[in-house]
Amino acid sequence: METALQQQPPPRAYEPDELEELKKKNDTIALQERRTRPVEVRAWPQYLTIMNTYKCDIECPMCFKQLDDVFNMSLPDMQWEIFEKVAHEVFPHLRLVALTVSGEPLISRNIFKELEVMRRYRVKCDVTTNGMPLARRGLLEALIPSCHALTVSFDGASKETFEYVRKGAHWDTVLKNLRLFHEARMKFAPEERPIFRMNHVYQYTNATELVTLVELAKDLGVDWLTVEKVYVHREYQNPTSMLRHPRLMNEMIERAKERAAQLNLPSSFPPLSDVSSGEPDAPYGDVPTEWLQAEAKKKNPTKLYRDLPPMPKGTVARAREERGVKTNAELLALIGSPNIGSRHWIYRQYDHVVRDGTVFRPGESDAAIVRVFCEDGARTIEKYLAVSVDCNGRHVQLDPYLGAAMAVAECSRNLACVGAESLGLTDCLNFGSPEKPETMWRFSRSVDGIRDACNALGVPVVSGNVSLYNETEGQSILPTPTVAIVGQLRDPADRVGMAFQPDTRVALLGVPARGALGGSEWLTSKVDDVTGEVVGIDLAAEVRLQKLLVRLARDRMLASAHDVSDGGIAACLAECCIARGVGCSVKLGLHGGRELAKLWSEEPSRVVVSFAAEREDQVRAAADSAGVPFEVLGTTGGAELTIDQVIRLPVAELARAYRAALDGIVG
Question: In whole angstroms, what is the distance from residue 40 CA to residue 58 CA?
């Protein structure tokens, strides 16, 4: 029996005027899609989308109907000869291929041959699927070794809603297939394991199921839940558009975000536009392309892909040669930026070694350590206290709850890196006018984030203050709930600095980065705005990491420890080299394109440590016992920082850029 897709009439010829009109409609759709997606780093020729098929085995109103006047879904699959030619000419220069987003890529009649060719050329693929074809015999075995990420489009958390929104998909079949996929991928090592994402579209029909969707994603083993906005640009979409019911949706979104945080599920729930901003609650009819362009650039200032200039001649041949040069320049710019570079000019303005109580000077460790003399009757007790102050307003801007929790976690992590246990926290909550609802909402959510992080880490809040109305001409500062934590070392000999020492092993403790760039210094410097997907934090993993760090310090296992934060792991490694002028050579498994985002990602709960080579087995065993991921990255020594084949810089050059960070501001 023919499906509805197979019954479609063959494509007809269009007149020039009709083609122009179709192009405008297609641009509207394409722009609408781009405005709702997280920022991605795509560098030609490392990433390529191949439309291996336009066919689909289900009919989704939010997808099928909006495309039926632009694409004919009964078009044949890409000819195998064409795919082979593309593979032969381009795949040697690629690291990642995205299979079609305008159909169901896994029903292509050539899918097994396509996956085999990608495996042969060592190219990974990103696949967006409805989940139905995953049960095809042999497909999982062929897909997983060649898959970088699999995204399942869901759009419903109950059988009734799911099968209504995604007509032709069967709830029980999809759930079974996704469990099979997760079970199969978990047999692979973490570095070879495909990322498992779930994608959801805000709709009125599924608004009340957002919390259930979060729980379902966690149960299925999803690594990341993303949610997209859909703006009305066809009349038939009006009943399903979230914009018709913004207050209901905003309430559901907040509940879902809270549940995701409770379950430690990385997720992205973009809020709806402020309903008082003048944007209509329920627009009707086609939205002009000009409006979409203006809105897209306003809400996401990154350059739209279709506006990019054509690829210059010779780019493919030069890409690998130029990659190292470009990333070298990126790191130098980042390490020399005012937000990351040295504060030497500031701390030299006062005596930071007064009474000889400073154990670690500024720039020598993740937290300050001072020797304090306490009177106990006739006795004088010598204590070694560690102090750290922290907050990244960019992450708080993107998600105040998670951003504030990340501030507490990083502050406490800094103490753990030097070998101290946290004793107590004080805060200073800096915000704009509380008379603005969005500011008061951020304030409230930040307090919730601080509370939950402190409870998880066992750090009491002993004091604090609030600073409001921090605005200039109506423009608020970034929400900045600054926290300071004091900790204590059991023994001064337990202390650990951040500087690399010669001839040691370098390793990463903590969950490896996905490459999320939301709120990062690198991304903000590129687009001049705070944007991107929220990186999130797993507080349970953070607790395990910090306990392990203190234990390793007390067992005198570590030569250095420095947490990955502003600037990502590239800046972290550079700072470790600069601290003592010792270089290092590490391998992160980066080959270019999207993978380079892992250099700059500021995902939390990661620490770069170094130790003597003979200590490796002991450190690994301690990490395994604590349930903390452990990966040896390389070795220290020499006068250069080398990361794979993408970065190679003299430590002296990095140090010059780092120490000159404030010169342009203070002279």
Answer: 28
Q: Taking the CB of residue 249, how many other CB atoms lie within 10 A of it?
A: 21
Longest dimension (CA), the chain: 99
- Measuring CA to CA, how many Å separate 8 from each of 19, 60, 149, 317, 426? 20, 16, 32, 43, 66
The span from the CA of 239 to the CA of 29, in Å, is 18
What is the rounded CA–CA span in Å between residue 4 and residue 77?
17
Rg (C-alpha) for the chain, rounded Å, is: 26
Angstrom distance (rounded) from CA 98 to CA 93 = 15
Per-residue pLDDT reduced to its tens digit, 395-448: 999 889 999 999 999 999 999 999 999 999 999 999 999 888 888 889 999 999
Residue 167: how many other CB atoms lie within 10 Å: 12
Retrieve residue 186's tokens. 């978990």
> Is the peptide bond prior to 312 cis by the omega test (within 30 degrees of 0)?
no
Question: Whole-angstrom Cα distance, residue 389 to residue 387?
Answer: 7
What stretches of 506-583 show up as alpha helix (H) in DSSP? 521-527, 539-554, 568-580
What angle (nearest 5°) sits at the alpha carbon of residue 233, between those of residues 228 and 239? 75
Question: Residue 70 burial (CB < 10 Å; 0-12/13-18/19+)?
Answer: middle
User: All domains of the chain, ordered by start, with CATH?
Assistant: 16-310 (3.20.20.70), 317-343+497-667 (3.90.650.10), 366-495 (3.30.1330.10)
- Choose between 36 and 450: higher pLDDT: 450
pLDDT digits (tens, 9 = 90+) for 579-625: 999 999 999 988 666 678 889 999 999 999 999 999 999 999 999 99
Strand partners, 507: 609, 632
Structure tokens at 285: 């009819």
> What number of helices (H) and strands (E) belong to the chain?
22, 22
CA angle (563 as vertex; 340, 649 as ends), nearest 5: 55
Flag whether the pTM goes above 0.70: no
Please count the CA atoms within 13 angstroms of the CA of 268 that sit on its side-chain side: 27
Cα-Cα-Cα-Cα dihedral sign, residues 344, 348, 351, 354: positive
Tokens of 519: 């709120």
Task: Quote the CA–CA distance of 233 and 373 in Å, as a whole number.
Answer: 70
CA 299-303-305 angle, to 5 degrees, is: 115
Instruction: For Cα atoms 657, 661, 667, give the angle at the middle one, nearest 5 degrees.
Output: 120
Do 46 and 94 meet the contact criterion of CB atoms below 8 Å apart?
Answer: yes
Q: Give per-residue pLDDT as tens, 138-172.
A: 888 888 888 888 988 887 788 877 877 777 778 88
CA distance 324 to 590: 11
3-state helix, strand, coil in the chain (%, to 5): 45, 20, 40
Instruction: Supply the DSSP string of 351-407, one letter for each residue.
Output: -TTGGG-EEE-TTSSSSEEEEEEEEETTEEEEEEEEEEEE--HHHHHH-HHHHHHHH
Residue whose pair of structure tokens reads 């001409």 in the numeric block: 473
Q: Determine the Cα–Cα distance for residues 52 and 87; give it in Å rounded to an integer.
A: 12
Alpha helices in 195-245 (DSSP H): 210-220
Q: How far apart are CA 215 and CA 206, in angstroms?
A: 14
